[in-house]
Amino acid sequence: MDRDGGPAVEQQQRSEAVDLPLVLSQLDATDPETRRDAVRRVRDGVDEEPCTYMPTVPKLRELLSDPGFELREAVAYSLAELAAEAPSDVAPSADAIVAAAADDQESPTAGELLRCLAAVTEERPTAVVEHVPAIVDLTEARDGDVHGIRTMAHVARARPDALEPALSLLTETVAPEPDDGAVAALSVLGRLGRSTAELSSLVFLDHAVELADREDAELRRNAVGCLADVAHRHPERVEPACPRLRSALESGDPETRANAAVTFGRVAAVEPSVVEPVRSQLLALLEDDHRYVRASACTALGHGDVTEARERLSTLATGDPEPTVRDRAAWACGELS
User: Fold this and answer.
1) Which of 56, 193, 245, 337 has the fewest Cβ atoms within 10 Å of its own Cβ atom?
2) Which portions of the sequence form the region Disordered (predicted)?
3) Residue 243 pLDDT more than 50?
4) What are the backbone angles phi and psi of residue 321, rounded to the nearest 5°?
5) Distance spanning both ends of the chain, measured CA to CA
6) What is the pLDDT averaged over residues 207-231?
7) Amino acid 47: pLDDT
8) What is the pLDDT of residue 16?
């Protein structure tokens, strides 16, 4: 029979068994073995009770900054686990984390610290903006470490222009034989292409086109999404890729269908004829179950001057249950009148 309170009581009892003041004082001890024992205790404890050990973050940061401390990997692991639990509590240590990782780029410690930064920037995307060049160097030294790429992807949500130093690395990551970080890298490249950054090269577009018909659903979705983002600022550079995106309009994944329709719409804004070969597919998407797909199809048909869509667009403009679809359909009707 379960005891009264069950797991909640057991968790509380375990937490009460942790003498946190003692652990904190041991992390400050002058005796090296005492500090090592405290780090081992934190390392073991964060797996089950990360919240309990959150106050150790400043002490761990100090130990991390000591290149002579023998258990830096354990410190880095603990910080990564604590960042996964409470990113904002670890974010103030971002400067020290980047510096420590840069000290020994190829070590397991650096790998754990990149994992820590990925967790921090998921919630606080601007926490490491000033360190982007260092993170790029670190990620490159670690053969495109996926946690480094994910850190960049999180930063790009808030400051895509800051990722310009990563262009070469990201392009290599999405090359014809993509690395593990390709899905996240495509997201960064799309945001970069859409930003005001003056990019030295758009070679990555060729790789995105090649990935846009891969069987891997997530890779394909982000490849098409990357093209849609770049088409926002550089529609003329994406236009040659449009014939390769026809099948994406019929993907089983609604986000991929929507991304493809967005791409056609943005290119059609400057070259309406691009819609002609996919006119029937876009018309079919007006009946799609997903609102974003329907809305994106409306935009593409409006930009593409597909007059035969006027009646169906008019019906959507007044009768679709989704406001976004009604607005896009009404706009398209205005373009076709």
Assistant:
1) 337
2) 1-43
3) yes
4) -70, -15
5) 74
6) 95
7) 93
8) 52
Reported as half-sphere exposure (CB side, CA atoms, 13 A), residue 234 has a value of 22
What integer best gives the mean pLDDT of the chain? 93
Separation in Å, CA 208 to CA 36, 174, 217: 48, 7, 14
Asked if residues 224 and 230 have their Cβ atoms less than 8 Å apart, the reply is no
Can you give the pLDDT at residue 18? 82
Question: Structural domain boundaries of the chain?
Answer: 18-124, 251-337
Give the residue from 238, 229, 249 showing the smallest Cα distance to 206: 238
pTM of the model: 0.88
Q: Which CA distances in Å does 237 have to 5, 83, 257?
A: 63, 40, 20
- What integer pLDDT is reported at residue 119 of this predicted model? 98
Structure tokens at 46: 């964060």
**What's the confidence (pLDDT) of residue 256?**
97
What single DSSP character describes residue 278? G
* HSE value, Cβ hemisphere, 13 Å, CA-based, for 60: 34
CA gap 102, 145 in Å, rounded: 14
For 12-56, how does the pLDDT look when each residue is reduced to its tens digit (9 = 90+)? 444 457 899 999 999 999 999 999 999 999 999 999 999 999 999
pLDDT confidence of residue 17 = 72
Q: How far apart are CA 70 and CA 48, in angstroms?
A: 24
Contacts 24+ apart (CB under 8 A), 275-281: 275/300, 275/301, 275/303, 275/304, 275/305, 275/306, 276/304, 277/243, 277/246, 278/242, 278/246, 278/249, 279/304, 279/306, 279/308, 281/246, 281/249, 281/250
pLDDT in tens, 64-116: 999 899 999 999 999 999 999 999 999 999 999 999 999 989 999 999 999 99
In angstroms, the CA 44 to CA 103 distance is 25
Q: Name the one residue in this structure whose structure tokens are 């420590």.
A: 100
Look-up of token digits 């930063």: 155
- Please report which residue ranges of the chain form alpha helices under DSSP H: 6-17, 20-27, 32-45, 57-64, 72-85, 87-90, 94-103, 108-123, 132-141, 146-158, 167-173, 182-194, 204-211, 217-233, 235-238, 254-268, 279-285, 291-303, 310-319, 323-336
